[in-house]
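Protein in question reproduced for absentees:

***
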Amino acid sequence: MKKYNSEFKSMIVELYKTGRSVKDLSHEYGVSEVTIYKWINYLTPEEREQLALQTT
């Protein structure tokens, strides 16, 4: 299992936020799409909270 440092994870999430697709990031950096989605969910809790508030 490969370990990624927090700077790398943050960089991937920031690229995603700029409009890059998870699929493209996965192919370019060799990280599975599932892993990238986990990082996005973990590193953006405030966005998750806002979505939760909108659905109630």
About this structure: The CA atoms of residues 13 and 38 lie 10 Å apart. The longest helix spans residues 6-17. The helical segments are 6-17, 22-29, 33-43, 45-54.
